[in-house]
Amino acid sequence: MMHMGSFDDEPESFLRMEAFCTEHRYIRSSKIHREIYLSDPRKTEPSKMKTVLRFPVNKP
Fold this sequence. Notes:
The protein is elongated. It has one helix at residues 10-23, and strands spanning 2-4, 27-28, 34-37, 50-54, 57-58. It is built from one helix and five strands, in the order βαββββ.
């Protein structure tokens, strides 16, 4: 998922991702996740930060 905004708001995006998985019958296979930072926090205001959020899933 492409998260736009402050790092502090990432939990809301993870909740949306988990809701999507539930709706489409995916199972999160691990609580481990990855964050890929596309913006430099030293040069970008928090509301315009971009981060790719990922976690592994399985479809039964």
